[in-house]
Design brief:
By secondary structure, the protein is an alpha/beta fold. Helix content is about 35%, strand content about 20%. It is built from 15 helices and 20 strands. A hairpin with a 5-residue loop joins strand 12 and strand 13. The protein binds ligand BES, manganese (II) ion and zinc ion (ZN).
Length: about 525
C-alpha cells in the first residue's frame, strides 16, 4: 500500500452512527383471560374454514347475539388462511374491536404450522389503518400440528416484532406508516402460560437479530463500509461480558499471509477488516461453532466490472456478515450457554488503479495459490482466508454465510438458501433448523466430479469454474479451505434480500442459524 493510498483510506473511514435503533417497542405478556369480559382495543380470534368459530370466537359470537357470525357471512369471509376481517364496535363484549383471522381447514383437529404463520402475518396488516396501541390474542386454543403453545407464542412475537423495523430512516421525512402497537397480550391458560412466556421472549430476541441484519443490509455502501461493520461489532460487545471483539487491520492480515482476501481489497480506498467476535456462553473446554460471513460492503465486480442495471443491489453483498452480527445479537439477548465465534471478512470490491486484474495469481493464507480469472468472483477469495483463519479456534463446526453466486438465485429462486457441506450430520442439522424456523435451505451437491472445473494451468486453482453449476463450483472452491473441520456453506444470494417494489433485506438466515444454535444447547 502506498503512503498516498493509506491517507485516502484513513480519510474515508467514516464515523459510524449506530444502525441499531431498533428499540423493542412492543411489550409482550401472557395472560389468562375471558374473551368476553377482557377489555382491550382489539381482540384477535381464529376461525376455521367454513366459518367454524374457535372457542373464543364462539363465546364472543354468543355474547353478541350471533352478530359476529352474521357479519362474517355477509362480508363473504370463509375462514381461509390469510383472510381476516376487522369488526368495529362489537356488542356484548368488552373489546373495542374484534379481528377474526382465517386459519384454514384443520386436519385431525390441528392446523398446519404454515397456516398458523400465514394467519398471524395478517395481524399487522389489519391493524395498520387502526389507532390500536394494544391488542389481545386469543389464539393459543388453535392447535397447530406438531407445535407447542411456546412455538405459537414465538411466532407471534417474531412476526409482530419485525414491524419494529423500518427501511425509510434516511428519508428526510419518513412516512408515518409506523405501527402504533406497543403492547401485545397473549391469552393462554394457566398451564400454557410458562411456555407462552418463553416463546414470546424467544420470538422477540430472534426478531431483534433479524432486524439488525435487515438494517445493516439495507444501509447503502457509502455508510455501511468495512469500518462501519467493525464498529457495529464493537457496539454489540459493549458492556457484554460474554462477547469480545477483535478487528484485524490490513497490516495484520498481510502478516498472516491473507493474499487472497487482500487482493479483493486492493482496488478500494476503504480498508478491509477481518472482524472476529467471540461469544463465550459455554464452558472453557467446549469447542465453539464458528459462523463466517461474507462482508463485501459493495461489489462492483472490480476490474471484471458488473453491468450497471441493478448494481445498487450489490450493497447487499454483506448480508452474510449482517447475519453473523444478527445471530450474535440474538445470542446476547438470550444469553445462550454455548460458545460461538463469528468471523467477518469485510471489504469493498472496487476497480481502482491498484485493483487486482484478471489473470493475477495470489497466495492464500493456506499456502494454496489462486489464479483470479474473474475479479467478480471475490466472495470466495475473501472467505477462503477467513476459513483458514478460523482453524485456530478448533471449531466443532463452521458455517459460512455468503451472497456468493447469481447461479444460486437461478437454481433456487428466493425461497431456499443453498446448502453445501462436507459433513452430512451438519447438513441435516441445518436443514432441520431451517424447517423449524421457516427459513429453509436446500441441500445441493458437493461431489468431487465438479472440482476439476477449477483447474488452472498456472496456479493451484482458478477462482471460477465456468458457467455450469456456478453455485456448486463456488462451494467446491471454498471446500478446499475447509478440510480441517465439519463445514457448511449457505449461499444466500437469493434469500438475503428482495428486489423490485418491496426491495429490502430479509434478515435471512438469522432465524435458521439461531434455531441451529438453540438445537445444540
Ligand atoms: N455477489 C455476487 C453474487 C450475486 C450476484 C448475488 C447477483 C446476488 C445477485 C458475487 O460476488 C458474484 O459476482 N458472483 C459471480 C461469480 C461469477 C463471476 C463466477 C456471479 O454469480 O455472477
Ligand atoms: Mn462479485
Ligand atoms: Zn459478491
Amino acid at each position: 500500500m502506498t503512503a498516498a493510498k493509506a491517507t485516502t483510506k484513513k480519510a474515508s473511514e467514516k464515523p459510524a452512527k449506530s444502525a441499531n435503533t431498533n428499540n423493542n417497542l412492543i411489550q409482550f405478556s401472557t395472560k389468562v383471560l375471558d374473551p368476553v369480559k377482557h377489555a382491550t382495543q382489539c381482540l384477535v380470534v381464529g376461525c376455521y374454514e367454513g366459518i367454524k368459530l374457535s372457542a373464543s370466537a364462539s363465546a364472543v359470537n354468543a355474547a353478541d347475539a350471533q352478530q359476529v357470525e352474521a357479519l362474517l357471512k355477509r362480508e363473504g369471509f370463509q375462514g381461509k388462511t390469510g383472510q381476516s376481517l376487522l369488526l368495529l364496535n362489537p356488542q356484548g363484549i368488552a373489546a373495542e374491536r374484534l379481528l377474526v383471522l382465517g386459519v384454514g381447514t384443520p386436519k385431525d383437529g390441528n392446523i398446519s404450522a404454515d397456516n398458523f404463520r400465514k394467519a398471524i402475518q395478517k395481524i399487522s396488516e389489519a391493524l395498520r389503518p387502526t389507532p390500536c396501541t394494544e391488542i389481545t390474542l386469543a389464539l393459543a386454543e388453535i392447535s397447530v400440528a406438531d407445535q407447542s403453545v411456546e412455538w405459537q407464542a414465538r411466532q407471534v412475537a417474531e412476526s409482530l416484532s419485525l414491524l419494529d423495523y423500518r427501511a425509510d430512516k434516511l428519508k428526510s421525512k419518513p412516512a408515518d406508516i409506523s405501527l402504533k402497537l406497543k403492547k401485545v397480550i397473549f391469552g393462554a391458560t394457566k398451564a400454557q402460560a410458562t411456555g407462552a412466556t418463553k416463546g414470546l421472549l424467544l420470538g422477540q430476541a430472534i426478531a431483534k437479530g433479524v432486524n439488525l441484519a435487515r438494517e445493516l443490509g439495507d444501509l447503502p455502501g457509502n455508510i455501511c463500509t468495512p469500518t462501519y461493520l467493525a464498529n457495529e461489532a464493537k457496539r454489540l460487545a459493549h458492556k457484554q461480558a460474554k462477547l469480545s471483539v477483535n478487528v484485524l487491520e490490513e497490516k495484520q492480515m498481510k502478516e498472516l499471509g491473507m493474499g487472497s482476501l487482500l487482493s479483493v481489497a486492493a482496488g478500494s480506498d476503504q480498508p478491509a477488516k477481518l472482524i472476529v467476535l467471540e461469544y463465550k456462553g459455554g464452558t472453557k473446554k467446549q469447542a465453539p461453532i464458528a459462523l463466517v460471513g461474507k462482508g463485501i460492503t459493495f461489489d462492483t465486480g472490480g476490474i471484471s466490472l458488473k453491468p450497471g442495471a441493478g448494481m445498487d443491489e450489490m450493497k447487499y453483498d454483506m448480508c452474510g456478515a449482517a447475519s453473523v452480527l444478527g445471530t450474535i445479537q440474538t445470542l446476547l439477548e438470550l444469553q445462550l450457554p454455548i460458545n460461538v465465534v463469528g468471523v467477518i471478512a469485510a471489504s469493498e470490491n472496487m476497480p481502482n488503479g491498484s485493483a487486482t486484474k484478471p489473470g493475477d495469481i495470489v497466495t492464500s493464507m493456506s499456502g494454496q495459490t489462486i489464479e483470479i480469472l474473474n475479479t467478480d468472483a471475490e466472495g470466495r477469495l475473501v472467505l477462503c482466508d477467513a476459513l483458514t483463519y478460523t482453524e485456530r479456534f478448533k471449531p466443532k463446526a463452521v458455517v459460512d454465510i455468503a451472497t456468493l453466486t447469481g447461479a444460486c438465485v437461478i437454481a433456487l429462486g428466493n425461497h431456499a438458501t443453498g446448502l453445501f457441506s462436507n459433513n452430512d450430520e451438519l447438513a441435516k442439522a441445518l436443514l432441520k433448523a431451517g424447517d423449524e424456523a421457516a427459513d429453509r435451505a436446500w441441500h445441493m451437491p458437493l461431489w468431487d466430479d465438479y472440482q476439476k472445473q477449477l483447474d488452472s494451468n498456472f496456479a493451484d486453482m482458478a477462482n471460477i469454474g465456468g458457467r455450469e453449476a456456478g453455485s456448486v463450483t463456488a462451494a467446491c472452491f471454498l471446500s478446499r479451505f475447509a478440510k480441517k473441520f465439519p463445514w457448511a456453506h449457505l449461499d444466500i444470494a437469493g434469500t438475503a434480500w428482495r428486489s423490485g417494489g418491496a426491495k429490502g433485506a430479509t434478515g435471512r438466515p438469522v432465524s435458521m442459524l439461531v434455531q441451529y444454535l438453540l438445537n445444540q444447547v
